[in-house]
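Objective 1b of the project was to move from sequence-level analysis to a structural picture of ligand recognition. The entry below was assembled by the postdoctoral researcher (A.K.) and checked by the PI before modelling. It contains the amino acid sequence of the target and the SMILES of the bound compound, NAP.
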Amino acid sequence: MTTTRKVAVITGAGSGIGKATAHAFLKDGWQVTFVGRRQDALDAALAEAGADAPHGLAVAADVGDPAAVAAVFEKTLARFGRVDALFNNAGQNAPGVPFEDLPWEKWKSVVDTNLNGAFLCAQAAFRIMKNQTPQGGRIINNGSISAHAPRPDSAPYTASKHGISGLTRTISLDGRKYGIACCQVDVGNAMTGLASRMAKGVKQADGTVKAEPMIDVTDVAKSVLFMANQPLDVNIYHLMVMATNMPYAGRG
Ligand SMILES: NC(=O)c1ccc[n+]([C@@H]2O[C@H](COP(=O)([O-])OP(=O)(O)OC[C@H]3O[C@@H](n4cnc5c(N)ncnc54)[C@H](OP(=O)(O)O)[C@@H]3O)[C@@H](O)[C@H]2O)c1
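Corresponding predicted holo structure:
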């Protein structure tokens, strides 16, 4: 339990990893802004926090929209006064279609959320962290195993997650002089709406289809909270949390 209530902004907090992490932060004594496009999902996620709900704020925004992102951080400052952590977690996947058939609109939608949205939120948080007293904070980007190796037919998702790795590294360097730490969690197969198809059966690199083992979102949330609770002169630069028996650990 933290002694003073720190402030986190968590995107994609209406479901999956983001919701589990927002609940874990609230339970640990943080104040949390829940962000996502659907206000009803955010309100429901906040209500699920029960006695901790008064320490949360639900703000609907598309992270790919600069004005909406600016409003999220303005509302967070108005309510909580500072930003100690951003969990850049909002993300989308694209249905697996052959590379040559991928519609431009699908590419753009995934990159707009996963990479452009992460940039916009990180920049807004960085500006606040740079200027607040005490100075500094931590930006935790949600990458993926896809930041390291692709699944078949996954160009927009894999490219956006490789972009996240570049964003993590550059913010980590540029944030040093302001006490801003930046790190990345790379998740493999947590059971959410986005990843449930892995449990049903998903195309492997050799073209076969296999059901893969999954882990619970609460185990990912624990890892993110652990990263967030380090002192600012300590950075868990990179953490991979995945299903022990998923194919990534070997060649298929
Ligand atoms: N589950 C896994 O195994 C796994 C593995 C590797 C990486 N990840 C990453 O984990 C993150 C969370 O995914 P998840 O698995 O928890 O799936 P999820 O339950 O589908 O969560 C994604 C969240 O992002 C929000 N979102 C999507 N587009 C948005 C936008 N443009 N603006 C604001 N919010 C947006 C969604 O809410 P709205 O629809 O209301 O906007 C949703 O709450 C993603 O970045 C994903 O790539 C997950």
